[in-house]
Specification:
ABC transporter ATP-binding protein; ATP-binding; 7 helices; alpha/beta; binds adenosine-5'-triphosphate; 227 residues; single chain; globular
Length: 227
């Protein structure tokens, strides 16, 4: 049997803060090409969990394997490279470089992942995402939010990741743009057999996902306030 692309057992993450906040995730998995909608109350630890799965943060205890690699024993730079090469990340804050064009933003992400991509492949990807050719060379800050979202998806897909992690990616969009965004994400991920772990407060789309997880069944957030 193949291992899930995300495979968590007995994970514990302690914030380095006075409140001694700890997130515990006994068990969680995402299968290859599976789409998972993750829901939870504000402050329940959704973003923290995604930061751990992306390798932005490192848990102190337990096991967190992504695509067969144990992230808890990697150094920060190893996790950065692993993320760049294997995980497409789309956060609410798109983190595009504002003065670079769509094409340059994607090239930069590929350079960081030590992978090469041709300009014509970038154009094909951007066209697939319905970004008009006329804006390919404009800087990101000259584009609409919806266009910037498309670049963020293209950048997340450029390295052909097996997993996309999206943390409230639609919260800055109006309903029509948000619906378009989800459709695009599913279309492109479906064509490439990419798994999706998607966090949102908006449950309208939950039914479209293969699995619907809730933080209260998945994790415990403990806080011991210092006296
Ligand atoms: N850098 C930090 N240092 C200490 N505690 C933090 C830090 N970031 C988050 N927390 C705490 O961890 C808990 C989980 O936060 P997190 O951002 O993961 O929740 P969330 O479910 O994503 O919330 P929301 O839906 O409001 O974005 C919160 O109680 C928060 O106060």
């Amino acid at each position: 049997m193949t291992e899930p692309i995300v495979n968590i057992t007995g994970l514990e993450f302690n914030f380095d803060d006075k409140s001694k906040t700890r997130l515990c995730v006994p068990k969680m998995s995402v299968e290859a090409a599976q789409t998972v909608f993750l829901q939870g109350d504000s402050g329940s630890g959704k973003s923290t969990l995604l930061h751990l799965i992306c390798g932005l943060w490192r848990a102190q205890k337990g096991s967190l394997r992504v695509l067969g690699q144990e992230l808890t024993t990697m150094s920060g730079s190893e996790r950065d490279l692993f993320r760049a090469q294997n995980i497409g990340v789309i956060f609410q804050k798109l983190n595009l470089i504002p003065y670079l064009s769509a094409v340059e933003n994607i090239q930069l992400a590929c350079q960081f992942a030590k992978q090469s991509i041709s300009v014509s492949d970038i154009h094909t990807l951007l066209e697939k995402l319905n970004l008009p050719r006329s804006v390919f060379q404009l800087s990101a800050n000259q584009l609409s939010l919806g266009q910037q979202q498309r670049i963020a998806i293209a950048r997340a897909l450029a390295n052909k990741p097996k997993l996309i992690i999206a943390d409230e990616p639609t919260s800055a969009l109006d309903q029509d743009n948000a619906d378009d965004f989800i459709k695009l994400l599913f279309d492109v991920a479906g064509q490439t057999n990419t798994g999706i772990l998607f966090v949102s407060h908006d449950t309208r789309w939950a039914a479209q996902f293969d699995e619907h997880l809730h933080m209260r069944e998945l994790a415990v957030l403990e806080r011991q306030l210092a006296c």
